[in-house]
Structure formats: structure tokens, C-alpha cells
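User: C-alpha cells for this one?
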Amino acid sequence: MRRPRKQAFRAPRLPVLHPIAIIMTELRSPTLPNLANDEQMFPKLTPAQVARIAARGRKRPIHQGELLVEQATTELPFFVVLSGEIEAVRPTGTEETFVTAVGPNQFTGEVTVLTGRRALVRLRVSQSGEVIELNRENLLALVQGDSELSEIFMRAFILRRLRLVAEGLGDVVLVGSRYSAGTLRIKEFLMRNSHPYSYIDLERDPDVENLLEHFKIGPKDIPVVICRGTLVLRNPSNREVADCLGFNDAIDQTQVRDLVVVGAGPAGLAAAVYGASEGLDVLVLETESPGGQAGSSSKIENYLGFPTGISGQELAGRAYAQAEKFGAHVVIARAAGRLACATKPYVVEVDENLKISGRAVVIASGVEYRKLPIANLARFENAGIYYAATFLEAQLCGDSEVVVVGGGNSAGQAAVFLSQTAKHVCVVIRGACLAKTMSRYLIRRIEETQNISVHPRMEIAALEGGDRLECVQWRNNQTGETKMHATRHLFLMTGAVPNTRWLDGCVALDEKGFIKTGSDLSQDDLKAGLWPLTRPPHPFETSLPGVFAVGDVRCGSVKRVSSAVGEGSVAISFVHQALRE
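Assistant:
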């Protein structure tokens, strides 16, 4: 492939909202990196590989200037270039900026061609020639049936998406403030969904702030999300962002599925991967972003097969790509509100307009960190109080003192990660030591890190500050002695509360609200649930036939990523048995 152009190309004038055009044109980066510099990201196919692709697609000519894909198009076609060249450009207001180009024996696309989401870039023919065109259905069949091409395509798609994320080459601009809790929330939502975006910081660019003021966008409107240069969202919810970007547009949410999985943490994604790969029609319902609590982990070092460790987000991203590869559908930013369990198929009710039916259900809704019983806690959430320790939070903390509350592995991983940039990390625990609740390798890491200190038998008693957290008070739970500690960053990773409120009495729970399954179910549990079968419940099956629970939400589960993955995958064998009944 010839060396890509460096310059931007001017597009025909398009109808855009004028204020947004100004923002995106004046504030975009003047130059973009060359993406076509990696043989794995832009491999060249062999004649034999091209022939196998041609058997599933159709050959057709392409002509210079022809628009093949417009930004925001759904159900994207996939092209293999036989001759000529196709360029990818990003529209920015009335102009467009060159991203990359593919030539003979190369192919277009990134993970969007598998998910069915809207196109992030515009594809246009820069040199006339001939291509093989495949629709999404045929591409999925090829990926699922041809192991060699599957490896080539999946690697390239994932690497291309990672580069787009790293360079912010997407269809959305986030205008916000480092002091805005909503800005951090949307950043995390986009990042954990691996959606590329450009960010404009009001504190660092006063001209932008003046521009927004000129168009009557006040402090209460921040953050502002601009979708595809045509739509402005003022302080939107995560669901509004997902709808604007079309995360769920390609999914038929009305059909009856073989399996509905509630929760896209490690357990839910494992169930989706194994279920879809074994031919089940699977839909996953996720409240926020794939990965669950594990997705917010900075580094998991004891997961089998990753001796150097892997971040929770990377692990979740790979699992999500696998699920999509095998044909599972994932609905993002839609929470289960109620399980209608009186009749079959079962129905997971999200709201009045969305009810998802399934012949079987896997509950993988996980847990959430227990919130401290402090009156003004909510006031400082995402404004000094955090429930995840990723590079986003680390950037906010900078070279300052931080406090991590909790004695489990998540807290240990957070403390070690934050110590790399923070001035000092205080780990506050209720117990006498970490030995009973944390893996030994993390304890050793904490002990050997000079800027981490552990404060045993302490609990957070009060929070103080103005618009942001400024100080915490902790109390010795034996002596009652209190101490004030100045910090603007408090990470809470204290215990777990199961996400089972939406089940509305459909399945048996233990005294802490976790779901009872298999041999943990007593005869009284089965009688109360009107168990209709002569057989006992399968492993991971709840008191409701065909409804299973896996991962952290299940009573007696081992709170580890690897065990959650194991439960999600093993449960599928029993789902098959339940579906045959």
C-alpha cells in the first residue's frame, strides 16, 4: 500500500448545527497520526484467503469519489480491496480529516462491523478498482467458521479500535471540567465501552468556555456531549449518551431469545461467549458497561494465563469482542427493573417500553460496593469519592495524597496502582490486618511500597469539603479516637451488596440477599417457590427452573474473576439441559 496522505480533505458542505461546527472545526487537533503503520493492524491477505472470502461475498467495481459508508451508518458492509484504494475520513463540521487508507489485498472495518453499531468514520473510494463486499451476516459466518481468517480479522479489528480510542478518533466530543462529577462519569462510560471520543477541558482552554457561554451553555449544562457534530446533549445520563451514539440500534429487542443474561461482568460475558458459541440465541442486558466491578480493576495479576497481569477493562473488552464474534447481542445502559417469572418464556422488564423475553435466564448482575452510612456521601461522589481506580482517576489525583478504604483484593490493587503516581496512599481497614481478606502477593506488594501506609481498625466517620471533598475523619473502632486527614481523593471498596432488588421475590435469597442455587436450596426454598419438577435443581440453578445465577451475586461464590468466568461457562451446560425439558 502506498504511503498514506498527511493532509486533510475538504468535504462537500453538509447541513450541520452551526455552533457545533465552530467547536469541532476550531478545536480539533490539527494533525492526526498515521494509522496504517502496523502489519497486524493492516495485514495483506494471501490469494487463497481472498478466494475464501470471495465465496461468501460479491465482487463489484468501485469508482473514485464513490461514498461507500457514511458516518453513523448501521449494518456496515465489509470490503476487501482487490484493486484501487478506499480511504477512511472523519467528518469535522464542514470539513473532514484523513484517518487512513487500505489498498489491494487489505480490508476495511473495525469492531463496529461485528457489533452492528453506527460507523465512526466515512469510507470513500480514493482510487477506482474492484472490491469484494460482504454484509454483516456473512462476515460473522466467516469469522465463526474460518479459524485463520477469524484470527486475522479479530486481531485487526481490535487493534484498530484500540488505536481509535487512544487517539480520540470517534464520532463524539465531550466538553467538560475536571471538577465536574458528570464529566468523570461520562468519561468512564465511554472508556469502559471502548468508544473513542475527543475531550475539551474548559479549565485548560478558556476560549472554549467563552464560546460555550456565548451559546448560553451554563455551568449546570456541563458536561456537554456532541454526537456526530449534529446533536448537543446537556449533562446527559449514560443512557442518553448510549442512545445518541446508537449503541443498541442494531439489536432486535422484541424477539424471544434462547437465553437472556443479566449483567456483563466476567460471569455474564463467559455465559454469553459459551452460549452463543454453542448455537444459542443470546442477549445480554448490561446496566452500565461490560466488565462489571472487575472492569474497573487497574490490574489483575493472578488470572490464569496472564503472568504479567491484565487490566479489568482489557479483559472485559476481549470477552465482549468474543461474545460479539459468536453472535451474542449486548444491550448497553439498560438495567433490569423486574423479572416477570409467573409464566414462560420469562420476561426481564427494563421499563414500560422494553421487555426482553427468554426461554432461560442467567442472572449475573453482580454486586456493588457497600456505601458508607454518611449523610453527605452522595455530595462528593465523583467529586473526590470514587468506586474505581483506573487511569482516569489516577490522572485526577496526580501527585497528591489519597485514601483507599477496604481490605480486599480490589482495594489492594487500587492502592498499588495509585502509588505509582500519588504522593502517598493511606489504606484504611476495619480489621487488625490484611491477611484474612487479601491475597498474599498484594500484601507483599503493599508492604514493600514506601509510599503506602496501612491504618488498621479504622473507619471513615465524616467527610468535609465545599464543591469537592477536602478532608476525611476516621475513627478507631476500638478506642473511639478520631483523626482528621486532609485529602481530596477517597476510594471506597468496602464489602459487597448483591444486585438482587429487581428479582421481586422470584428466586430464593439468603439472609444477605445473595441468590441460593443448586444444593444450597432447601426443601422449604423449593416449596416456597413452587418448584414444579421431580428433579432437583441443577448446579447454579435457582429455585425457578431454567433461571440460573453465577458470579458474585450467587450465594457461596468465590469472589474471584476466574471463578466467575468458570461459573458462567459451566452454567451453559445446564442451560442446555433445562431448554430440552
